[in-house]
Amino acid sequence: MSLIDYVSAFLKPLKKRATMSILAYRVRARNRTLTAHPTSIWDYGYHDLHAIEIGEGVTVGPYALVLVYHRSPLSSIPGRLIIGDRCAISFGVCIRAAGGTVRIGNGSAVAANSVLIAANHMIKPGEPRFKVKWDETFSGIEIGSNVWVGAGCVLLPGVVIGDDAVIAAGSVVKGTVPSGEIWGGVPARKLRRIGEQNAAEPESA
Question: Could you report the per-residue pLDDT of 8-27, keeping only the tens digit for each?
């Protein structure tokens, strides 16, 4: 390797780190009540800051990845991220708001290491998995107000979760979760309504 190769290998990650720092700074500067851990990653097109709408008192935890691309050559559907007031995005959460809108209602929380995917690749025989258009049949994610998404959940494109719902840890969710219900499993299904006693649980005080 030449000296130029060594210098280039040294400078490339520094340039990437500086770029990511600038992107994160722009989000924090625009949203003064946002509390985002310094290790959280904000990945978006430089001209796509308008596609990120964050309410008052939002918290984003360490190592969360928030990706928002308003335009993509793989989809005609614009990407957007809308987070309501007093929401919490926990440690290691991955939000991919490209090819659809990810909307999180007021007072909702997404627990550690969960993944929210606005669009997915189409699957066609013999075609490369990562070079094909995204499926526009199902896109975007809608999470209502006062929703709890447990740790390690995966929310697939097209998911709609009603107000006051709870998603159990480790669930894979597709389709619609009605308001006020607890869902869990792979794929997630209704476990019970909030307030209904589970036969395996004692009466609460």
Answer: 776 777 888 899 999 999 99
Q: Where are the domains of the chain?
A: 3-192
Question: Which DSSP string corresponds to 5-39?
Answer: HHHHHHHHHHHHHHHHHHHHHHHHHH-TT-EE-TT
- The CA distance from 64 to 59, in Å, is 11
Query: Cα(first)–Cα(last) distance of the chain, in Å?
Result: 70
Provide the token pair at 205: 């005080």
Can you tell me the distance from the alpha carbon of 18 to that of 49, in angstroms, rounded to the nearest whole number?
17
At the top level of CATH, which class does the domain 3-192 belong to?
mainly beta
Q: Which two tokens stand for residue 93?
A: 């959460």
Preceding amide of 187 cis, omega within 30: yes
Q: Catalogue the active-site residues.
A: 121
- 145 close to 105: Cβ distance less than 8 angstroms: yes
Q: Kindly tell me if the per-residue pLDDT of 205 is higher than 50.
A: no
